Amino acid sequence: MAMVKQATELTIPDDLKLLYNKALNNQEANDKQQAVAYYTQVLNQVKSYDLTTQDVDQLEYQIYLNICDIHSQQSEISLAIAFITKALQVADILQRQDKLSQCYNRRGELKSLQGDYEGALLDHKRSVEIKLTMDQSEETDVAGSYINIGNVYYAQGNYDNAISMYEKSLDIDSSVLGDHHRPRSAKTYNSMGNIYDEQGKHDDAICMYQKSLKINLSELGDYHPCIADTYHNMGNVYLSQGKYDSAVSMYEKSLKIQLSTLDENHPNISDTYNNMGNVYRTQGKYKDAICMFEKSLEIKLSVLGDNDPSVAATYTSMGTVCQAQGKYHEAVSLYDKSLKIQISAFDDNHPSTAANYSSLGNVYYAQGKYDDACCMYEKSLKIQLSALNNDHPSIAITHKHLGHVYDHQGKYDDAICMFEKSLQINLLVLDDDHPYLAEIYNNMGLTYYNQSKYNDAISMYQKSIKICLAVLGDVHPSIAEMYHNIGIVYKNQENYGEALNMYKKSLQINMSTLDDRQINIADTYHDMGVVYYAQSDYDTAISKYQESLKIKFLVLDGYHPSIADTYKNLGIVYGKKSEDDRHYAVAFYERALTISVHGHQPNHLDHVDTNDNDKHHQHDDALAMRQRFNEIHLSLRQAYKVNQTNTNMNHQWQVYQRQSQQSSNLRDNASHNGHHQTQRSHYQAVKEKKYFTAYLQALKKGCCRNKMIQAVFAGPEGVGKSSIMRIFTQQQLISLQDPTKIADQSDKMIHLQYYKIKDRTTHSLGEILDDNVYEIVQLQYDYLISNQQISTISRPLQDEYLPIHDQHASDAIQSSKTNQQIAATTSTSSGVSTMLQTDNDLLLQHCRHFFQHYYPSWLNKTTDDSQYAKIWDFEGQSIYHVTHQPFLSSNSIYILVFNISQNIHDKVLTRDGQLLNKTYLQSMHEWLTSIVGGNANQNKMTTTVDSDQVEYSLPIVILVASRGDYITSKQQGMNRFVQFERELRTTMPHYNSNICSSRIIFNCNPDDNSDATVAERQQCSLRLHDIIKSFLQSLPFMYHPIPIQWYLLATILHTPADVSLNQVKSSFIDQIRNNRVHKIMTMQEIQSLAKDIGLYEDENELIAMLSYLHDLGEVIFCRKGYDKAGNCGIIVTDVDWLLRIFRAIICLDNCASGSLDIQSLYEEASRTGKISIKYVNYILAPYKLSDQIRKSIINLMEAYDILCTIKSDNDQDECHYFVPYFLRYDVQPFDLTKYHVSETLYIGYEHNHIPYIPDGIYYCLLSSCLKEWNNTKVELYYQCAKFYLTSNHHYIIINKDKSHIALQYCYQKLDNPTLFNTIQSQVQTSIYKDRPHDTIKQKLSSLIHDRMPKFKGSIIRYYIRCHECGKLTFIDDEEDFQEGSNILCRNQSCYLIFDSQSIKDWMFLNQQNDNGKLNKIKS
């Protein structure tokens, strides 16, 4: 980059100097746009001055260079080239050889970035020519130009010429400049190492890196970014060699140095995370890989922005992981993102763009869309041939990809031709034993195998293995792949012994080098099963298929076609094994059939643009899916030995798609066929028996897709959330509406699937539960009448709540066997009763009671696919934030409301006109951090909003504005909305992917009900409805199959607000509710109830059910302190009852009733943050709670830190609870004038990890510290607490400072010096030995881990304030204090060393030793 010249070095007038210096300052402050504006002003004004031509040219030259650098830093390469060309023209006018050389060199660098390598070479060579003509006494740096030329050759893949240039540079540096340029020589060795790595010369690469490392260690010391770079590159070599542990070790060494020497958001750290992700991806550790890529992406987005090519590269890496997992639509979405960035940063003909087209081709190839894959590869090849040398390795790779496509299209000769082209290029640029050549030989072997040219195939495989053994050793995954492929050839030659031998070799290598969940291992087990089946060794074949399934369940999507294939093969084996095992075959065919259908649900195609080409592909997908279905269905028919017609087969297909009404039509026709009443009665009796059989069948494994979710209105207090909720649910607005207290739940489910803006309907939970039970049973009934068989709908292969079990296969067998027994017994006269008689008559009786509760309502019911959202209104007052924790759900959609009539930086205005000590921006930070941080789900989803396909992180937060009636025009409203949104995204970029900006502005004026306003409200409600609906159609939570037992138990636990809503009143269910269901229950009580009524499967299942109901807001399920005996879990079945109790205890304004004594107790709580047990008992008295229930409520509130018991040392003192959020805003700060106060120490996280610590977390931290120190003398004022540590004679002050916790300690000033010194010594000893700051840090970390699981991997640190820049900088371990209390500020704008009193006060340093030096004390 060109050096920015100060205006003082230029001969120009003062006013131009001022403008120029303003431009420089803005450039250095990264305000690029303003800098360019000032530079432009200088250029426009300079000609109006009477200056010499030389002065004007000098000034223009420097400005053009500076503007070039600005555009280059913003990846605007074309603009950067335009300005460096202008600088070049001016340099030519000045006839300055040094400036000409500099411009040619800079333009060459930019052309390299643009992919114009030939142009870059011309410029760099021209630069060298000029330098060679200059006086060599000048600083010409010819060696540097040779390095630049070498870099271009490297980018072109012209490795020999690149090495030649690097060696020229090294010769000059060593002979002419001596040690002066040793660090640059290290960098050159590093570049040569990169080339040798590309060439597969791994030993030479390591040699170069070690030379680089040796120089840098001697010149720079152990901890320098250059050392980290070399470790990083050595890790790349080990990755290429398949030495994954060594690679990770090198990356971790690199990362340790980077984290200690660089800013946390430095791009180099991002690169290290990215390459660690590559290792994990290669090992098949896909979750770890995604984690690393997301860390890398987070840094890049925060530093480089959304449109940097480096961001595109990470999207591509993430896409490869999704592709490997079979998540093809997600992969395409990521590749598309990458492609858009590359095209905007460069152009359509850049090599990086070509690479993206190849990535898209790869995913289309994986999907079997070979025409599309071919199209992408050809696009890539066209760009590469125009931008790169004809023998560039990238071109060879594209030829290889085309060979794969032709192979799968059956164009085997064309495939061999492509592979030979690839081989020819690689033989020119690579050594004969390079691993890439082995890969091509392997590909040619596959094609010869497909042509049944088995001998040629084995010959190619053996060539491949020979190279791999020589280069990679005998335990590399690539060699395992070769053995596997040879095994396939031997299998097709029916040489089963040799096939198994090859498979075992492959398996042995993979098991020793890869994670045991690698999909390659699953494939080998599968193929071994095929061989054992061919040898009629059915038991071993079954064993191998089951081993394959275990791995596939862990690493693939539950509906991946590969899983269906293994199930199908299991069905084949059992079908051959014996007649007695035919029911096993049926079970596995059914599983395969279910996956075949459900794995390609229509919603999986929603993310694809619906142009004509994509519709064609969807049609192709449908045909492929139908073909797979027909194949498996044929096997299933043969297993059943039922001669079904094609019509019946199509009928079952339609049943699986839930689009057929054939069964219901048959039933309707039967009820109106003119038979006598007795015949109709007989028909109804048979029908009821069949329904009961279907109901019993559904109890085994029946489930249906989840249809319910919470929609939570949240935001600062007084912004109009309740008004918007009422508008959305078509309720009347209320003038001067009372504020919501804690939260209000609407006992209404808003119907979304068939929701009409003029005809909105609401439903009770009871209705929805009834409908879901009916849908599950009806599906079983349809199977029964269409096939005269009882089938099963599989439980989900993967479930958010339940762990994945390894016994899926055996479960399927056992389930199917039981189902066949049911089917057999239903045809007998004794019916189901006989079958269940031996099990449990009481359970059968309960089944009949449940069935009788539901059956009458099913006679005229139809199924639909509606979805429902339960509406919640969360209050915004800080006093309630800590109480929201029990009601927050990780599977909710949040509507975050802000007041558009207020500025985001204004202080929050309450309903009574008071200004709080918090701005609207801070309040929005509070909500966003609580919502996003409280969600452990790291998943992403892609949905279409306003015709744009967008990727979001979970949970979803929809931004909505209120108070539109205060805005004078729509344009003003939209401008304010955009400004608010921009401020939010700028200050909290970490949450950008969670936020959906709706641009909806509601008019909340209850007195304005004009036709225009009502129509506008309806339009806003419709838009909000459409956005919510878009998310519901894509949310993974909405597609989880929910077992029927969950709905049945939920029906028992749910007490409807209006009993008349139940279509059938059941005395049986009412009796259970009255006798067994209480408002608050233990886990043991729920478990006992479920067992007694036959709805208990196991403990994990029960926990999953309660978690699901908790996520819907139907119960509060607190597992804190839960043990295996089930004695500690707390379940609240009546959530509204709990809310009323919370509202009563936590009064917003004042105590509404009671004696003066009671009111004074409340007043005391609002002044001190401590509430008397006498007051709590008074509040709870009207609820007539038993001692046990009262104790459970207090335990629940303590579990969520809503209350914290203060244990007094004196048994005579009245018990109090600690409630810091009770404190009024106007409580006066502490008077510390009589105390010696330490410097402040801060605890917290990097802003890009946790940008804000919510009030709820802070209050919980205070409660946790209270429990630790049992401090009865704790004092409070607004967001600050002072704990007195009696035994140590000092106070600890804990203050919330936005995104950090600020700590101080203080002790009394005394006139007696001796006594004061004694106290001071005791305090210092306490800080040194007891380290209360470590205790607070650990407790904050624990709270973040438990309550904000999204951030549980974030690193908590100590921070101190820099005296130079005034910003916080984190303090690290030993290296920070080598020179006493001096510390380096890590803020990029500062980077100065300063002396910190905080280091001394908080005893990170011990007292001075005998030599007068400060010793480090490790925390």
DSSP helical segment count: 53
Number of DSSP E strands: 29
The profile of the biggest β sheet is: 8 strands, antiparallel
Whole-angstrom Rg: 36 Å
Mean pLDDT equals 76
Tell me what the structure shows:
By secondary structure, this protein is α+β, with helices and mostly antiparallel strands. Helices cover 59% and strands 10% of the residues. It is built from 53 helices and 29 strands. Strands 20, 21, 22, 23, 24, 25, 26 and 27 form an eight-stranded antiparallel β-sheet that branches. A hairpin with a 2-residue loop joins strand 24 and strand 25. Helix 7 packs antiparallel against helix 8 (159-177) and helix 20 packs antiparallel against helix 21. The longest helix is centred in the middle third of the chain and has 29 residues, at 612-640. The protein is globular, with a radius of gyration of 36 Å. The two termini are 42 Å apart. 48% of the residues are buried. Mean pLDDT is 76; it is low at 1-8, 599-626, 640-680, 736-759, 787-839, 1057-1065, 1121-1126 and 1407-1419.
Secondary structure layout plus pairing:
Elements lengths: L13 H15 L3 H15 L6 H21 L3 H18 L2 H18 L2 H17 L8 H15 L2 H19 L4 H17 L3 H19 L4 H16 L3 H18 L5 H17 L2 H19 L4 H16 L3 H18 L5 H17 L2 H18 L5 H16 L3 H18 L5 H16 L3 H19 L4 H16 L3 H18 L5 H16 L3 H18 L5 H17 L4 H17 L13 H29 L5 H11 L5 H10 L5 H25 L1 E3 L2 E7 L6 H8 L14 E9 L10 E2 L1 H23 L20 H19 L4 H7 L3 H18 L9 E7 L3 H4 L10 E8 L7 E3 L5 E5 H14 L6 E6 L2 E6 L2 E7 L7 H18 L7 E7 L9 H22 L8 E3 H10 L13 H10 L3 E3 H10 L6 H13 L4 E3 L11 E3 L2 H11 L10 H13 L1 E3 H8 L6 H13 L5 E2 L9 E3 L16 E3 L3 E4 L10 H15 L5 E3 L2 E6 L4 E8 L2 E9 L4 H17 L2 H16 L9 E5 L6 E4 L10 E3 ...
Parallel strand pairs: 2-5, 2-6, 6-11, 11-12
Antiparallel strand pairs: 1-13, 3-4, 3-5, 7-8, 9-10, 14-16, 15-16, 17-19, 18-19, 20-25, 21-25, 21-26, 22-23, 23-24, 24-25, 26-27, 28-29
